[in-house]
Each structure stands twice: as C-alpha cells, then as structure tokens.
Specification:
By secondary structure, this protein is an alpha/beta fold. It contains 6 helices and 10 strands.
C-alpha cells in the first residue's frame, strides 16, 4: 500500500513538473505581425491637444495606419489581425528618448540595484530609447546587442563612448591613460632636475 502511494505521488509530481516546463508563453512574449489598437486617444507631442478616439494599425512593428474604426476595416483587406488592444479611455504617445543617461550600476558602485529593475523603470516611464554616454562601453555594447536581439526587456540602447580631449573610451579607461601619462611626465620632469 505504501509503495503504491509513493509511486502515485511520484507520478503526480512528474506530471506537474512536465506541465510547467511546456507552459505556453504569455501573450506579451510573442510579437504580433499585425496589431490593432482600438479607441485610443493620440498625443502627437507637437503641442496640439490629443485627438480621437482612433484605431491604430501596427504592421511588422511599424505604425501603418491611424484612423477611424470603419476606415481601418476598409483598409485591412484580407489581412488577419494577430492581436487587438482596446485602449478606450487610454492615451497613445510617441516613445520618450533619454538623450543623456548613465546606468545606475556604473555610477553607484556598491549600491545594489539590479540592472533589469532600472530598464523596467525606463520602460514604465515611457522611455523607449536611451543614449548611454560615459558608462562601461563594452558592457553597454553587450546590452545594446541583447536589446536589439530582443533577448532582454529594455529600451532601444544607443551607446556613445566617452570623449575627453579627442580620446574615446569608458571614463575608467581615460582615467587610467591620464594617470599613466601624468606618471611619465613626472618621471621625465624629475629626471631632468637630477
């Protein structure tokens, strides 16, 4: 009796683990080829008041049409829609670009903050593109590649190397070069006095 109960418990555990490993990804984990956002109020960002409600068609990641619901249906032809978002009472606006930013972990060493938390803060605030200036160049380039490949959840990352007196690199690299140049100058100066 005990062995039957153990075998049964093992089968239940195995079945539960197998079910979890084959879980269907959430809807946000799949890119929709054709997305329709219905009943949205649009903010263009040009100091004019929002207008709408309108329907927005996003085809292969690009906005292909903005108009009334009837005209969206008329222009759709035979194309199927992969996803529909009802944005009634909500606003749609262009993504915000942060043209000068530094990742927290690059500026606050020793103060733990997961990098994904920071990326999520940018996205939650509507920032869809960041321009990293002066951080760890290699690490930022790696994150840029991961963001472009959609293997991380992050805004679009543009990486600009730190520039000081015509030299590029991360701030730490430039400090190292500057320090070694200063040492060489001191050695030359002290040897000329001897």
């Amino acid at each position: 009796m005990l062995s039957t109960a153990l075998v049964l418990a093992g089968l239940i555990t195995f079945r539960t683990e197998a079910q979890q490993s084959v879980a269907t990804p959430a809807i946000h984990a799949r890119a929709a080829r054709r997305l329709v956002i219905k009943n949205a109020m649009v903010i263009y960002g040009n100091a004019k008041p929002p207008y709408g409600p309108v329907d927005i068609v996003v085809q292969d990641g690009l906005i292909s049409y903005i108009g009334s619901g009837a005209s969206v249906v008329a222009n759709a032809g035979r194309q199927t829609t992969d996803a529909v978002i009802d944005a009634a009472g909500k606003y749609v606006m262009p993504g915000i670009v942060n043209a000068h930013m530094h990742w927290h972990e690059e500026r606050q060493p020793g103060i733990p903050q997961p990098i994904q938390y920071e990326r999520n803060l940018y996205l939650a605030a509507g920032v869809t593109t960041v321009r990293e200036v002066g951080g760890d160049f290699d690490k930022s380039k790696q994150w840029q590649a991961e963001s472009n490949a959609h293997s991380i959840v992050a805004p679009r990352i543009l990486v600009y190397p730190f520039v000081s007196k015509g030299r590029t690199g991360s701030p730490n690299e430039i400090r190292r070069r500057r320090t070694s140049r200063s040492r060489r100058r001191r050695r030359r100066t002290s040897s000329s006095w001897a």
